[in-house]
Design a protein that fits this description.
The structure is a single chain. The protein contains two helices and three strands. With 74 residues, the chain is α+β, with helices and mostly antiparallel strands. It has a three-stranded antiparallel beta sheet with strand order 1-2-3, with helices on one face. The chain starts with a helix and ends with a helix.
Length: 74
């Protein structure tokens, strides 16, 4: 039987991994974020100046991953 922890780990695919580096002007409690984000598998990267821009990049890359996986399935 697979434990919840094992199931969770199995669901964490490398193509869903990102590195987010926050810049010195980031003040999360004030809603101010800036920095750089990189998708580990494709190496796509961008700088962001807002949470919305960070999430938009992640959303776009994850859609590309999902579309590529769907296209590869028979």
């Amino acid at each position: 039987m697979i434990s919840d922890d094992q199931h969770h780990r199995a669901a964490l695919r490398p193509e869903h991994a990102f590195v987010v580096q926050f810049g010195p002007a980031t003040q999360v409690d004030a809603g101010q974020v800036e920095g750089r984000v990189e998708h580990l598998v494709s190496r796509q990267a961008t700088r962001f100046q807002s949470l919305e821009a960070l999430l938009a990049f992640i959303d776009r890359v994850l859609r590309e991953v999902r579309d590529a996986r769907s296209a590869a399935e028979p």
